[in-house]
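Quick note —
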Amino acid sequence: MKTKFLFTFTVLIFSFASARAADVMDEQQFKKLMKEVGRVAKGFKDNAQAKNAAAVEKDSARVAEIYTQMAGFWKARNADDAVKWSTASAASAKATAAAAQAGDWDKVKTHWGAVGKNCKDCHEAHREKVGNNYHIK
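Predicted structure written out below.
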């Protein structure tokens, strides 16, 4: 009976630890999301200038989701400044989506500008160029 209990307990502990590790984004997943943000940002200016509210709203909502995930990545690395920038970017992207839906293009520009500023600050603090590639410090 003790052996059966010990075995079950051990399996549960390892299962929990494995599931927990799967919740944490790895660096490759992080880079993939960063590239997605880059693709969205490239099209954002054209969509905003064309006042394409549906596209701006959709893209901004996706960027908000990505930055929410990135906050968890940085939290696991104990990078409080990057957690702050990711959280702020998620909030600004959500505000961008809401402003686009409301047709308030001045606010779209302001909120999206805040996302860009957070990107720049985080890149300066946590990204380095090695050869032709960028790596997380």
